Amino acid sequence: MKAVFLTGRRQMEVRQVPQPTLERPSDVLLRIDTVGVCGSDMHYYRSGRIGAQVVQYPWIIGHECAGTVVQAGPLVRNLKVGDRVAVDPLDWCGSCDQCATGRRHTCRNQAFLGCPGQTPGSLAEYLVWPAKSCYRIPDTMTAAQATLLEPFSIGLYAQRLAGRPDGKRIGILGAGPIGLCVLLALKAAGPCQTYVTDLLDNRLHLARRFGADWTGDPSRLDVPTEVAKHVPPLLDCVFECAGKQETLDQGVELLKPGGLLLMVGIPEHDRISFDMNHLRRKELTLQNVRRQNECIQPAMDMVSGGKVNLDALATHRFTIDRAQEAFDLVDQYRDGVIKAIVLVSTDS
């Protein structure tokens, strides 16, 4: 089968490797149909690491994916051959203290698709994965839509951590795929005022299409000053979705006393800092957001039920042989890209 390997920083090769086989009775063999290029993939692509997770080349990345079941282990009950599925990229143990308390996403023994030292990713024609982490999609849902459930479920989980948005004034700093998914989740959850920033006009335009009440480019204006003109008391909560020191600082400035800063973006560097004077005097709460904890199914229900439409996120499509072009496009923010989708299967 074909698989796409990272062979160095910003270097990829399509190689022929043996097709994986079922070893555990609770697994399924998937023909991968589509793979999305994620911001966390770009960390591995650009620098070969996220924190202590360092790529040992060659390595297969990719975790946003959808596929079709071509073989099922004897203990699989929820799926059958031919089922089309959205994939939760997490394999959790189910027996540690974290899993026992509803925190599968921080499982002590987890394996995450494409994560160095855990399990190779989904940028390949076939993948063996636990059936428990695969969700059968409706016939009306496309493979690309199923792939977009992964980033949307992160936005949904972040929204749920913040609580119901009804009547709140909320900032979203960074209108890439995750920031836009947060926006969609908020607007679906209840009436709220949203203030969205990004450096790219096409992303701000899409944020307005998705219902943002105000958008701004921090390279052109002082965001805290401008937002304060609209909301003198400042914001109830801010979702930081860019992973930048500058936006983390802006988030602190934008929050009213007692506000909540949700850190969704993954910083490029291991350490960030805060002005403790602001944190302490405002008594702000900081909340990290780790992946999507059990939100794939509710995300699918929202999309299939017409409550949320993700289609506009998928702006570009590439065949598996052109995977590096997809990564280069996202890396360089060219051609108005929001989400690049790699079409792995010719049937997708």
Which descriptors would you attach to this protein?
2 domains; 28% helix; Rossmann fold; alpha/beta; Quinone Oxidoreductase, Chain A, domain 1; globular; seven-stranded mixed sheet
Mind explaining what this structure looks like?
It is built from ten helices and 19 strands. It is about 30% helix and about 25% strand. Strands 3, 6, 7, 10, 11, 18 and 19 form a seven-stranded mixed sheet that branches. Strands 14-13-12-15-16-17 form a six-stranded parallel sheet, with helices on both faces. Strands 1-2 form a two-stranded antiparallel sheet. The longest helix has 20 residues, at about 145-160. The chain folds into two domains: about 1-135 and about 310-345, Medium-chain alcohol dehydrogenases, catalytic domain (Quinone Oxidoreductase, Chain A, domain 1), CATH 3.90.180.10; about 150-290, NAD(P)-binding Rossmann-like Domain (Rossmann fold, 3-Layer(aba) Sandwich). Strand 4 (about 50) and strand 5 form a beta hairpin. It is an alpha/beta fold. It has helices at about 40-45, 95-100, 145-160, 175-190, 200-210, 225-230, 245-255, 275-280, 295-305, 325-330, and strands at about 1-10, 10-15, 25-35, 50, 55, 65-70, 85, 90, 110, 125-130, 135, 170-175, 195, 215, 235-240, 255-265, 285-290, 315-320, 340-345. The model has no long low-confidence stretch (mean pLDDT about 95).
